[in-house]
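Supplementary Methods S3. Input chains for the assembly prediction are listed below.
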Amino acid sequence: MIDTTNTKSLETAAHPENLRRVAIEPVSRVEGHGKVTLLLDESNRVQQVRLHIVEFRGFEKFIQGRPYWEAPVMVQRLCGICPVSHHIAASKAMDMIVGATLTPTAEKVRRLMHYGQMLQSHALHFFHLCSPDSLFGFDSDVAKRNIVGVVAAYPDIAKQGVLLRKYGQEVIRVTAGKRVHGTGSIPGGVNKNVSLEERDYLLKDIDQMVEWSKAAVGIARQLFEQNLDLYNNFGTFKAHTLNLVRADGAMDLYHGGLRARDMDGKTLFDHYDYSHYWDEIFEDVKNWSYMKFPFLRRLGPDDGWYRVGPLSRVTQCDFIPTPLANQARKAFMAFNGGSATGATLGFHWARMIEMLHAAELIRELLHDPDLQGNELVNIGQRQERGVGVIEAPRGTLIHHYKVDEHDQITRCNLIVSTTHNNQAMNEAIRVVALQYFDGREITEGLLNHIEVAIRAFDPCLSCATHALGKMPLEVEVLDAAGERLSSLSRSSDGTFSALA
Amino acid sequence: MSDTFHLDGVEVKFEHGQTVLQAALAAGKYIPHLCYHPEFKPHGSCKLCTVKIGSRTAASCTMPAETGLEIESGIEELNALRRTLVQMLFAEGNHFCPSCEKSGNCMLQALGYDLEVHTAGFRHQYPDRPLDASHPDILLDFNRCILCELCVRASGEVDGKNVFALSGRGATKHLIVNAASGQLKDTDIALGDKAMQVCPVGVILKKRIGFSIPIGERRYDQRPISAQALDDAPRKPAGAKP
Ligand code: SF4
Ligand code: FES
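Predicted C-alpha cells for the full assembly:
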C-alpha cells in the first residue's frame, strides 16, 4: 500500500536538477489556463507535483477607478462559465456600499437567477466535462473519451444534460435580461421582476428538470457504487472545509454566515459574519504560481488550507431545506459508512444533490407571488466598504471593494472558489501521482488521471487567474536536461495528435 | 410646389434651406449618421452620412439639397466605408459594450448593429483616459468620446455655459472641461442642461443610474436606429410655416 498521507514533500523536490519534467499544459475541460508539472527521477518515481497558474491578468487593477455601479456587470468578464456568480457577489458587495436592505422581490429574483446558474453550471460539469471520464473510464480510449463519444453511447443522458443546462440558462435570461452578460442585478436590488408570462414559461418544464436532476443523483450514486474502491480512494485526502450556512444550519447558496470545520469535523468557527472575512481568511503567495493560497488564519499558512464547493457544502450543512435533495443528502451521508463524504470523487455526487436542490428551489420560487412585486430597489446610507459572499457552483466566492466619495472603486479583492481550492487541488494530484505514477511509464491515460482529480473540483482557472480565455492542451515530456522527448497536443474536442 | 432630388432612385421632396440628410429623414428615408442632431447646426465630422453624387462623395448632413441631384446612399460601396468608420471609432477608444451602461442606448453601438459590423477590423488602441468623477451627480468617461462636439455645441448654444471644448488636433484631439482645474466639479454644469442629453455614446452620464433600465426596455432594444432616427426627424425645416 502506498502511503499517500505525506504529500507535503511533493510540493518541492529535494534535487530538481536531476529530474525529468512532465508538463500537462493547460489542463483540458477546465476553464482558463493551468498547467501541471511532474518531476520524475530516472526510475519514473514522482518527486514533485504542482498545479500552476501560468497566466495572470489583474482584474483587480483593471476595475480601479471605475464607478461602483458598473462592477456587477463588469465582473462578468472574469468568467465565461459562471459570470452570474460574479454578477451576484459583486451586487451583494454593492448592496453594502449603497446601504441597501433588499426588498423581498429583489432578493427572490436574485436567488432565482443564482439557482438557474447553479443548475446550468452543475449540469455542464457533470454531463459535459466529467461524463467522458466517469462513463468510459479514466484511461479509456482517448478517441472516445469526450462529449461526442458520450452522445453516441448514452444519447438520453447527453440530451438531458443539454436540456438541464438550457433550462438554467433560460432562468438566467428571464432574470438577468440575457443568457450571458445580463444586467438584472444592480446595487440595492434588481432592474426587473419576473412577469406572469415569464413565470408560466419557466413553470412549463420545471417538473421535468426536477425529475432529471433526481435521476442524475442516481447516476452519480451508481457510478460510486459500481467502482467503490476507486471512488473511495482516488485522489482522496483529508481537508478542512469552508462554506456558508443559513442561521439554522441549512444549506444556503445565496447568503449566510461562514462555517469552517477541521479535517476531523471539529467546528473552527460558525455563522461567522463575512463582512470582515479577513480576520479569519488570509492569502499566501508562492513563487511558482500566480494563484494565491488562501488559509485559515488561526491554523496558519502551512496547515490552514481548506476545501470549498459542493462536497464541503453538502457534508457540512445540517440539512438541505428542500425535501428531495435533503433525502438525497441523507443517503449520501449514510452510504458505505460515510465514505463518499471525504472522497475526492464524492464531489460529483454532491454536485448532483445540489443540482437537485437548485431545481427544487426554482420550482418553489416560481410559485412565489413576490417575484411579480414592483419594489425592486432599496437604497440607504452610503458606505465605504462592501463585501459580498455567495456559494457559487464551485464554492465560496468573495468580492470585496472600497469605493471613494466620488463613487469610484479604489480597491478590489476577489477570492474565487477555485483559489480557495488551490492547495486542495494540489493535494489531490499529489495523491494521485503517488497512487498511479510511481515507477510506471507515462501514458496519456495516466496523465488523464491527474486531470480527473483536478476536474473533480470543477475548477475555473479563468476565474482564478482573473483572466479570460481557453487554450488547447499540450503535454510535454522533457528529460532532465530540458530536451523534449515527446509531446502531444489535444484540441478542445478531446482529440489528440502528435506534435512534430 | 417643392423641389425634389433622387435618393437611391426614389424621389425626395425638400424645402429650401434643408440639407440632403434633413430632407431625406423628413421624407422617411434613412441615411446613417452619428454627429448630426436635429436640434443643432450640422457639424460634418463623423462622415457616416457620406453619400455619392455621380463620382463625388459628400457629407449629406452639411450638403444643401438641390433640385435634380442624383444621390446614392444605400449601396454596398458606401456601407462598407461606413463600417470601416465605425470600426475605427471602436478601435480608437475603449468601448466595452457588455459592461457599458450606455449599451442599448448608444448610437455608436446601434449603428454597429445596423450596419452589421461584426469584426473589430483594427487593432484596439486601448488609450489610457482616466474618468472625471469629481462632480457629485455627473460622471465623465472620456474613454468613449467620439469627438462629435454635440456637448460642446449644446453647452455653448443652448445652456450658455461653455462647459466643454475640444483641444488638440488630429490624433491628439480630445474633449476638455472648461475650468481652471480641468475638473467638472468646478463648472456650473447641472443635471437639467442640454449638454446632459446629447452625447450619442456613454461619456456624459448621470451618476448612480448605471444599469437600472433592464435589457429589452432600452432605446435600441425596441427598434433599430434606422427606424428611431426617422421618428426624431423634424418634418419641416426650422422656421417653415406648418
Ligand atoms: S462627450 Fe459625447 S457629445 Fe461630447 S464630444 Fe464626446 S461623444 Fe460627443
Ligand atoms: S452625420 Fe454627417 S458627418 Fe456626421
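Chain B touches chain A through 19 residues (CB under 8 Å). The first strand of chain B starts at residue 3 and ends at 7.
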